[in-house]
Write a structure and sequence with these properties.
The complex is a heterodimer of chains A (299) and B (348). Chain A is mostly helical. Chain A contains 11 helices and 4 strands. Chain B has 348 residues and is an all-alpha fold. Classes of the chains: A mainly alpha (299), B mainly alpha (348). At the A-B interface, α4, α9 and α11 of A face α6, α10, α12 and α14 of B.
């Protein structure tokens, strides 16, 4: 029983990290109607920025305090988002969804190459932002890094949800998510929306990288998390910020349980396949996810 | 667009793939050049061409699913992998390649149908996600199955092709083997557009609601588009298996799928010519970058520049194609050809 509950706790905490990555998908979709397959690469870029302005700078002989490092990373994320908007997605405004989807795939190839050219393919240690170790609560052991990350995820979800549903700017972003042309004709700046989407997406991805990697090893393979978070974003609903952490917890717990109870029977495949099986199930039964917008098609 | 003065008197004349004598002469010249190529090229360049043919087979498949039916497929490499593993397994039983290649193609097609089933409920980008699931799940499943089924992490060796007492082993043999298959598939890819099924796919791509109203069975067309596209992938997989003589999961990554898609976009997804142009262009670009990377290595840059360099080049090419020429190289090519045909009169 204690084992079972411990598994549940771990699954929940890991699931919240998935949820955080999924939020970065949702933020971009919610503000620009772009499903960005390159989200994993964006996350790696954010992580590499943070590494460069903390440990990387320290290696080169410049000691930057962690807070200042975060500030510079923030500026770098904003610049990165603006560059993507100006040179990749602004020329594609109101193009068919297929072109925009392909652009995100091209971005995936391009960013991976750029990361490897600029930073090299070697692994590096990531600055320890959160304290390591665990807290014992009764008979259970809780990972501090993931616990703080989970709390952070919940606060971020709350804030972003308020921004998207209560503020004037956030609501105009919803119009862009509905349809580029309609948004343009109603006087909503699609350029601005896409810029905001990418800046927010990059910042949230960087936060996710920090929670995921704090005190651990950063390699280009980390980008895989992007594909793991995609089923989460889909289960929660691509338009729903609040759905993402909930779906993350569901998938995280499911994965943890599968790892303990099904993996010994299936030679370790069950936990890997589960998120994608859930994804296909969601697509078959309820394509808009738990809290997404239901699209009604008219001729 | 044909120049003035070329008239078709019968429908069958109108429907021909090659309508002018001049185009037939050009094609004959191309075939002769490809057949004579091994006389002039070394084993390295033959290998490059063989790889190019195999890639072209897979990209033809994508052209059917993505270009004609408009269903995004990011799992082509996994489907190639299915074909390769089936080939390895069947060749291990001592079956002849004449049986193995079609069976591998059919099994690959059957597997792809499994991931096309959600097309009944979802479309567009959501359908792309199910293929993404196929791509991600493929290595997990192969690795988890018992070792003696598909070799697990180690991989499987493939029995070489035997025709009577002859064993295909040299680069020249494989060059001709893949050339023959790719020629067959080229005819298939070009012909598909002229069939009833091909037109149904175009209708589904352009507007699936309207297609449904006009009596096209949308779900069946989408599922069949995946099936046909994967037949091409299965043949490509069989060729890969025979060519490499060994298959492992690590050759069939999501990244390779993305590359195939990139080639199709650069060439132009709307026509089979686009598939050819994209594959040829990217292959030669890659070979050019090989030279650049070697030069960089000699001038003291660290190793492993080649892979990121080709990634950046392909990514940039796809983005440029999407932004500046969404119809791809195929459109540029047809503009050029028309100008040549109409010379000295200006186009329009």
């Amino acid at each position: 029983m204690i084992n079972f509950l411990q598994t549940l706790i771990e699954g929940t905490l890991v699931g919240l990290v998935y949820g955080l990555v999924a939020i970065s998908f949702v933020v971009i979709y919610r503000a620009s109607r772009i499903v960005n397959l390159a989200q994993g690469e964006i996350l790696v870029f954010g992580a590499l920025f943070l590494w460069t302005f903390t440990l990387g700078a320290a290696h080169a002989g410049y000691h930057i305090p962690l807070v200042l490092g975060f500030a510079i990373t923030l500026v770098a994320c904003i610049t990165f988002g603006l560059v993507l908007e100006r040179f990749v997605f602004r020329p594609l405004i109101s193009q068919p969804a297929f072109a925009i989807f392909m652009a995100s795939i091209a971005l995936l190839i391009l960013l991976r190459g750029v990361a490897q050219l600029v930073w090299g393919a070697e692994t590096r240690s990531f600055p320890a932002v959160f304290p390591e170790g665990g807290i014992a609560i009764g008979p259970f052991l809780v990972n501090t890094r993931l616990l703080l990350g989970g709390v952070f995820t919940l606060i971020l979800t709350f804030g972003l949800h308020l921004f998207f549903t209560r503020s004037r700017h956030g609501l105009s972003l919803a119009a862009v998510a509905e349809d580029h042309n309609i948004a343009l004709s109603l006087g909503v700046s699609v350029r601005w929306a896409i810029a905001v989407a990418w800046i927010l997406g990059t910042i949230v991805a960087t936060c996710a990288a920090t929670v995921l990697l704090s005190g651990r090893i950063l390699s280009l393979e980390v980008a895989q998390i992007g594909f793991k978070a995609l089923p989460v974003a889909l289960l929660g609903g691509l338009e729903s910020i609040r759905g993402a952490p909930l779906a993350g917890v569901l998938i995280g717990v499911g994965e943890a349980l599968a790892m303990v109870y099904l993996d010994p029977l299936t030679n370790g495949a069950a936990s890997g396949v589960l998120p994608y099986a859930v994804m296909i199930g969601v697509l078959l039964v309820r394509p808009q996810g738990l809290f997404g917008w239901k699209k009604i098609e008219r001729l | 667009m044909l120049p003035t003065g070329i008239h078709s008197l019968t429908y069958s004349d109108e429907a021909r793939l090659l309508r002018t004598t001049r185009s037939r002469i050009w094609l004959a010249l191309l075939v002769v050049a490809l057949l004579a190529y091994p006389l002039f090229a070394g084993p390295y360049m033959l290998g490059v061409f063989t790889n190019m043919f195999i890639t072209l087979m897979a990209v033809y498949g994508l052209y059917v699913t993505v270009g004609m039916a408009g269903q995004i497929n990011v799992a082509q490499s996994a489907f190639v992998g299915v074909g390769a593993f089936v080939t390895a397994k069947l060749s291990g039983y001592g079956l002849s390649f004449i049986l193995v290649v079609p069976v591998a193609a059919l099994i690959t097609g059957a597997v792809s149908i499994l991931f096309a089933l959600p097309a009944a409920r979802v479309k567009g980008f959501y359908l792309a996600l199910t293929t993404l699931a196929a791509q991600v799940v493929f290595p997990i499943v192969i690795l988890a199955l018992p070792m003696d089924w598909f070799g697990g992490l180690v991989g499987m060796s493939v029995e070489p092709i035997r025709i009577g007492s002859l064993t295909l082993g040299s680069p020249v043999d494989f060059y001709y083997f893949t050339l023959l298959l790719v020629a067959f598939l080229t005819v298939a890819a070009f012909n598909l557009k002229r069939s009833r099924f091909g037109r149904a796919m175009l209708a589904v791509r352009d507007n699936d609601v309207v297609a449904e109203v006009m009596g096209v069975p949308v779900f069946r067309t989408k599922a069949l588009a995946f099936f046909v596209g994967s037949l091409f992938a299965g043949v490509a997989g069989a060729c890969t298996a025979y060519f490499l003589q060994f298959v492992t999961v690590s050759s069939f990554t999501l990244f390779a799928s993305v590359w195939y898609l990139g080639m199709l976009i650069v060439g132009g997804a709307q026509s089979a010519t686009g598939a050819i142009l994209g594959v040829v262009f990217i292959t030669f670009l890659q070979e050019g970058l090989h030279g650049v990377a070697n030069a960089l290595m000699q001038s003291g840059a660290s190793g492993g520049v080649l892979f990121p360099l080709t990634s950046v080049a392909l990514g940039a090419c796809v983005l440029l194609a999407l932004i500046f020429e969404p119809r791809g190289l195929a459109h540029r090519w047809s503009v050029l050809r028309t100008a040549f045909q109409l010379w000295p009169f200006p186009r329009n």
